[in-house]
Write a structure and sequence with these properties.
about 25% strand; 10 helices; globular; six-stranded mixed beta sheet; alpha/beta
Length: about 350
């Protein structure tokens, strides 16, 4: 069976809804099944998952080759076992979800973290593909982060997910908050985080702080509120994000894509994030050194994008030979926003992961 005819069933497991969809040749099909996520107990929830995939398979008609989707952790994703979930307490003790679905549908089942699949989707069909279309140099690695209810991440190395030995790679929310080292960085880089920042900068109780989109509009002067406080809140948000990205990129040496519901406010936080990434460290002798060995460029800024794309390779002569070799002396990465949209990127990533595992 050709890849073009390969159908993969996916699931977006949110706290409110379970949205089942199908992907064929990396394109999301129009057929979808929506079921409410809140459930009375584990059996009720699992029956909804089985029912959703069953109904979707009937709608699609073409036999699916696999099921591939994201699910909250902690989990042993390699073996498809879901661990103890805070938002779904009846999963306590571990549930072999993939094996259960394989027994029911008789096809392979793959489960991953949403941040991982987001990064893979953007690497295969979104942001990284766009970067490589325009760049003379090819970039093969990608760090993807999502900003929403929490701060998630995923790492793609040479077109494949990096999951680590315990399915716990790219758990970026476990880095410390530079504002308060006793806190997780997620206490800033999340919906609750930007609301708290706005409350603190404007001098109002946290419970009275508006939602992130409204804070964005206040900062733009398009909604009533404390504009100066909103702008400052997003700047602090950007500095904390830049600190986190600089730490991770120093290990991954990769371009970065930002997604999630809050990524739409990138014009207010991304410039500050890049400033932080490209800042310097103070040495004991009083001199300074670049924070990263790389230079990060804002892909969403036309001037910075042009500077990133201005590759000036050197043609080096190979000693004792008549051959030459191309050398790119400047180490640089591009930081940009999701091209597919988070949900579509996750679905495309789920498809790409499945067809890779199936050897298609």
């Amino acid at each position: 069976m050709s890849r073009e005819k390969t159908t993969i069933l996916t699931l977006d497991a949110g706290g409110t809804n379970l949205v089942f969809s199908a992907v064929q040749n990396r394109q999301i099909l129009k057929q979808k099944v929506h079921l409410p996520a809140p459930s009375e107990n584990l059996e009720d929830f699992l029956k909804k998952v089985i029912s959703g995939f069953s109904e979707l398979q009937q709608q699609v008609k073409m036999k699916a080759r696999a099921i591939s989707f994201c699910f909250p952790g902690p989990a042993d994703y390699e073996n498809g076992i879901i661990g103890d979930l805070e938002n779904l307490p009846f999963f306590m003790g571990g549930i072999p979800l993939a094996k259960m679905l394989e027994e029911v549908f008789k096809i392979p089942v793959f489960i991953n973290n949403d941040g991982d699949l987001f990064a893979l989707g953007e690497a295969m069909e979104g942001y990284l593909r766009e970067v490589n279309r325009e760049s003379k140099k090819e970039y093969n690695n990608l760090l993807g982060v999502t900003l929403g209810t929490g701060f998630g991440g995923g790492i793609v190395v040479n077109g494949k997910l990096f999951g680590g030995d315990n399915s716990a790679a790219a758990e970026v929310n476990r880095m410390s908050n530079p504002i308060n080292r006793e806190q997780s960085v997620e206490e800033v880089l999340s919906i609750r985080g930007i609301r708290r920042l706005y409350a603190e900068t404007s001098g109002i109780p946290v419970e009275k702080a508006p939602i992130p989109f409204d804070i964005f509009l206040v900062a733009l002067g398009e909604k009533e509120g404390n504009k100066a406080a909103a702008v400052e809140a997003w700047k602090i948000f950007g500095r904390v994000l830049g600190d986190a990205l600089a730490n991770v990129v120093s290990l991954t040496d990769s371009c970065v894509v930002v997604g999630g519901g809050m990524s739409g406010a990138y014009s207010l936080f991304l410039p500050t994030a890049l400033e932080q990434m490209n800042s310097t460290f103070l040495k004991n002798d009083g001199s300074r050194m670049p924070r990263m060995e790389l230079t990060a460029y804002n892909w969403e800024n036309s001037v910075e994008k042009a500077a990133f794309l201005k590759d000036e390779p050197r043609i080096l002569a190979v000693p004792f030979s008549d051959k030459t070799q191309v050398y790119y002396p400047q180490k640089k990465i591009a930081v940009g926003i999701s091209r597919l949209g988070t949900s579509e990127a996750v679905a495309v990533g789920a498809y790409a992961f499945a067809v890779s595992k199936l050897g298609l």
